[in-house]
Specification:
The protein is α+β, with helices and mostly antiparallel strands. It is about 40% helix and about 20% strand.
C-alpha cells in the first residue's frame, strides 16, 4: 500500500486546512498544478530496494481525503471525488470518496454526453475477440468493474459499460 498522503502529513509535518491549502512546516503554501489540472506537491522518497531516490507526485485532494477519511481512502475501488466537479477546490466540504460510478454522477449533465461519446470511441480500440474475453472475465469475476478495468487497462467505467452492453 502506498501511503504518500500519510507521509506528507505525519512524517514531513505538512498541514492541510479546511480550505484545502497545503502548508509546509514553515506555514508557507506549497504545490503546483499537474498536467491533469489538479493541485499537487512532489516529494522525494528513498526506495530501499533499488537504493535510489524517487520523485513522487502527491495530489492535494488525496491528502485532504486522507485527513478526512483515513485509511478508507486506500480501499480497492475507492477514489476521491470533487463534489462540485472543480479539480482545484480541495476544501473539506467538497472532498468525498466513492466508487467510479459515484464520481461519474458528480459530473454536470452537459459533461455526461461528452463522456459517453469518448467512451464509445475508446471502446472501438478493442477487437471483437478481446471484447468476448472482457465480457467472460467480467461475468466470471462477479461483475467486478474494478478488476476488469485493471486487467484490460480500461480507463473509464463508461468505456467498460459500452464494451459490456453495446459491443
Amino acid at each position: 500500500m502506498d501511503n504518500r498522503e500519510e507521509l506528507i502529513l505525519k512524517e514531513l509535518n505538512y498541514k492541510i486546512n479546511k480550505n484545502g491549502t497545503l502548508l509546509n512546516p514553515y506555514h508557507k503554501e506549497v504545490g503546483s498544478i499537474s498536467a491533469q489540472g489538479y493541485k499537487k506537491v512532489q516529494v522525494t522518497l528513498y526506495d530501499k530496494i533499488i537504493k535510489a531516490k524517487k520523485i513522487k507526485e502527491v495530489f492535494i485532494h488525496r491528502i485532504q481525503a486522507f485527513k478526512k477519511f483515513g485509511n478508507k481512502l486506500y480501499v480497492d475501488g475507492i477514489m476521491v471525488r470533487h463534489l462540485d466537479n472543480n479539480k482545484l477546490n480541495n476544501s473539506w466540504d467538497n472532498i468525498g470518496i466513492g466508487n467510479a460510478k459515484d464520481n461519474y454522477n458528480d459530473l454536470p449533465k452537459e459533461n455526461i454526453k461528452e463522456r459517453q461519446i469518448l467512451a464509445t470511441n475508446a471502446s472501438k480500440k478493442y477487437s471483437d475477440s478481446l471484447v468476448k474475453e472482457i465480457k467472460s472475465f467480467y461475468k466470471n469475476n462477479n461483475n467486478n468493474q474494478t478488476a476488469a478495468m485493471k486487467k484490460y487497462n480500461i480507463s473509464s467505467t463508461g468505456t467498460l459499460w459500452y464494451i459490456l452492453n453495446k459491443r
